[in-house]
Amino acid sequence: MNKYTQLLFCAATALSCTLLDSCRTVPITGRTQFIMSSASEENALGLQAFTQERQQHGQSTNATYNAVLKRCASALIAVADEDSFDWQVSVLNSKEQNAFCAPGGKIGVYSGIMDLMNNEAELAFVVAHEIGHAIARHYGERTAWNSVVQAGGEVLKNIDPNSTASALYGPAAQLGITLPFSRRNEYEADEIGMILMARAGYNPNAAIEFWSRFSGGNASSGSMLSGLMRTHPKDADRINAMKEILPRAQEEYAKAATKRGYGSSF
Ligand SMILES: [Zn+2]
Fold this sequence. Notes:
The chain is mostly helical. The protein has one domain. It is 58% helix and 8% strand. The chain has 13 helices and five strands. The strands form two sheets. It has a three-stranded mixed beta sheet. α10 packs antiparallel against α13 (236-255). The protein starts with a helix and ends in an 11-residue tail after the last helix. The relative contact order is 0.16. Zinc ion binds next to α5 and α9.
């Protein structure tokens, strides 16, 4: 993104925050963000996208995977502090090595990535990272951001509080539940994810161990995690950023009422 576009986005953010009720504060990180759609509109699309994925792939019949994800997600949901979500959790029957939490708390983990987990705490990080995208409303933010970028200056002239989200969103498929977010949003989801997993009683070291296992430029290890790598680029910067968050996450872990550690191996 060039400087002109960044400047334009900042101007649009400032103007819209002034004119419209379109700003909120991201939980845990405290960042002020700009969103033109409403949470209920995003959540309706999240439900559609989740339903489509479940219809396409079907739910896994692996009893261990289902039990571990249910336990892990329940622990995370309990500390996510998001009462407006109607949470649903599914292991989806697909070789795809990825996971998502669609707006409204619709968590889908593909069996392909369950195969790669060393323990429950690694799963907790992946799920908590995805929950981070949802409670930080990155889906709505991505739409707003893209609209400003694509529309150039036009969006500034056309802001109409009565016709925002419906015009910005396409069908549920375009919600893009496994498309990449911006780098900034990935870092933010890592931060929220590490804090949430720690509050849920999972050892936050597992977050760094999980990513480190698939980093280092080894082609075979990269291809082992092709799905998540496609939407979550690995790099040293990202792991370094996670290491910076670790002391805060360890403090949360120390305070957690229930210690789950690394949880079960499966
Ligand atoms: Zn992500």
